[in-house]
Amino acid sequence: MVTVKQILNENPQLMDLLLEGNFGIELEQHRILTDGQLSRYPYPQVFRSRRHNPYLKTDFSDTMTEIASAPTLGATAAVKNTKILQQIVHDQLHEDERYWPLSVLPELNDADLEYAGHNNTRHWMDDYHDYLQEKYGTVRQIMTGVHVGYSLNDSLIYGLYHHGFKEKYASMTEFRNEIYFQLAQGFVLNRWLFTYLFGCSPLLTNRPTDLPAEIQGPMRSFRSSKYGYANLPDEEVAYGSFDQFINQIQQYVDDGTYFSHHEFYGPVRLKTPADTLADIKNNGTRWIEIRAFDLDPLSRSGISNDTLNFLELYLTYTLTLEEPAELNARLVEAVELNNQVALQNPTEQFDWVKDRASELLDQIEAFADEVNAPKIYQDALLFTRRRVEDPSLTISGQIMEKLISPEDYLNYGLLIANDRFSMNRHYEHPIEVLKDQYPENTQQLLRAAIEMGVTVIFEDDSHFELSVGDHLEFFDKTIKFIFPEGPEQYLANMFPELAELTDEKP
């Protein structure tokens, strides 16, 4: 039977597309005050409708800002897009507000926890919000993280299907689902490695009331453990096969175990634009969403280029593997291994972690050489090896060196938050990371578009697109805009549809 590796070796044009995937980043952070309490300021009205803005929203609490960058080719562009959104939301902070840079908030008093649990003005989400609060508790729902969307190059998928898998799979839809589910399985099987490398929720500053007494910090990642951001133990979904996975989620929705399919909190979701289980089955997965990353306080964007480059190298490596023997047993073991790593002191390392990680990295390095992976992937691999050799170089390991006393957690987080606040206040351009690419007035237009919920697509080095629904406008990047009434009114005149995009209208 033909394999992905055989097809790639016989079709070098497909090999060249292997590391040409798209990334989209969703990042959650809380607005806090400079004394560490949750902000009481309302969500900025300049960001318009949270129901319709594709980039700027809130999650469980109104203090919990969620930014979502558009999918784009490669890690560097994805991080750049995230920085655009971060500048925009930082600029709306009051002088005594900051964004908390870690996944777990500092210790909150009872008033803060009460406020976090009930401060939700997304009225269309009231029932779901109250359901989650009752079932999982406020402490778990206000943990934040990074969700990484990843899609393979479409031409690669098409080429693999037509060069070897057309007979095995009845349709491209079926093949899409299987190939993306293979990526999901691959991540789950070695999630422990990603938790070891990138986990960073080391302290139980706000303890869930149902947490067993023996669970104490410091730990590598409470959020990534079975006690953290996870479904209840008897409501988890296995990654044994695509059909089993989809059918189990659907069953939980049908019998009322889940409020909706959005309640599935597994480490990887299958995604389509319509965001329904039926669309996945009928039209095929378009990307996977990896939900297992804590915020990286060492990276201004919450996740680094090296992390994303290593992730892409790992995922494409798993694409070339055959299904492992005793898959179901391996998946069960993987859950336990991840939990062990998550709950371990971040300055320590199990012997098996170093042994397994070193062997796995050797295999990934051989794969990288075989596909002629560019230097950025080799650098990410080297970066990863150093952290495997020394746990103090992992994200949690570096953080714990600075936390001598419980008070240090708040001070450390505020130090980073204050630095980023100050840096943003000193920016001299509407979108700092675009200062060398677009004129000032174009930056003003792009910024206003994002704030108002207009979709922005950077088509290539010479053009960009703005759209609302089916209404699309195409611009040369060298055009000189004039806004006698400001960029917001310019966009309102161009897109009268914006007037209909309110929180009151679905």
From TrEMBL:
It is an enzyme of class 6 (ligase). Keywords: ATP-binding, Glutathione biosynthesis, Ligase, Nucleotide-binding. GO terms for cellular component: cytosol. It catalyses: L-cysteine + L-glutamate + ATP = gamma-L-glutamyl-L-cysteine + ADP + phosphate + H(+). Residues 12-338 form the Glutamate--cysteine ligase domain. GO terms for molecular function: ATP binding; glutamate-cysteine ligase activity; metal ion binding. One of its GO terms (biological process) is glutathione biosynthetic process. Its EC number is 6.3.2.2. Pathway: Sulfur metabolism; glutathione biosynthesis; glutathione from L-cysteine and L-glutamate: step 1/2. Belongs to the glutamate--cysteine ligase type 1 family. This is Glutamate--cysteine ligase. It comes from Limosilactobacillus gastricus PS3.
